[in-house]
Known about the structure:
73% of the residues lie in helices and 1% in strands.
Amino acid sequence: MALKSPAKNLTHKQYPLLSQLDDDFQRIEQEINKNLQSSVPLIAQVSRYIIRSGGKRLRPLLMVLAARLLHYHGDDKYALSIVFEYLHAATLLHDDVVDNAELRRGQPSANTVWGNAAVVLVGDFLLATSFLLSVLSGNLKILRVLSETTTTMAEGEVLQLINSDNLEVTEEDYLEVISRKTAILISAACQVGAILGNAAEDQEDAVRSFGLNLGMAFQLRDDVLDYSGTEEEVGKPVGKDLQEGKITLPLIHTLASSSNEDRQRLIELITADEIEPQTFREVQTIIQRYLGLDYTNQLANRYIATAKDKLATFPPSPARDSLLEIADYVVTRRV
């Protein structure tokens, strides 16, 4: 089965500075492959399947760049950076089981191929491997950041489950979920890079905050693409969130701002037993009428502006330029 190159997803022609990071991508891939070993063949097989299925390697790259921003140039940063790819992969495996997903990045999801039990256990293996690699760093502060991050992510998953199919969920509630579930891991990747670089407290906080705001924008852009992208672009069926009962910001905004007539029609559509293609198209039409996608994009752009501001205290450097380009990529991507 042919798999997409992760570097191709991120080093888009519109972001020429990122094309200079090919060596970083290659070093990250080498470390990922080196650590995907197990005496149990199924573990290695499922791990490789999810990790090599076209991910952008955004999180490990951010860690490497954050370390470089603080003038850390040790090669051990690559080995540590893959902790964030393994943690991300573990959450993807668990998410697909919870969501009964059939596709992941345009391919059959791992649980469709191997079943739920095997996928949950391999997700646990990746989680355990992440902590082993972080322990090997010998840095207790890094281990604490990762421990707090995974705890927060688990809370975010539960909050999302609680809010599933809840038509009364507020924007504030939703932003709390994505902060805990998605943004926190991107924030941690940046923070750990800063810790490697022995950053001063204010520098570490600025880099951590950059990552958190970037992560919020990343998820909000995902929400937009779920209502406006194509399956080929997004790598999953468009409207997947709605099918799974996930009430994301475009829908939250529309439910809060629509007329009584449109709100009732929207509720009727999204609570139907089956979300047929024509049903989804009507939902899209109502969301567009009340500018739900525009609103979500605007909020994502505000998060990105805040993220960029956090880097203003650092002097110009290739690492800072690359981080700023990634920020631009996050809110314009189609994948």
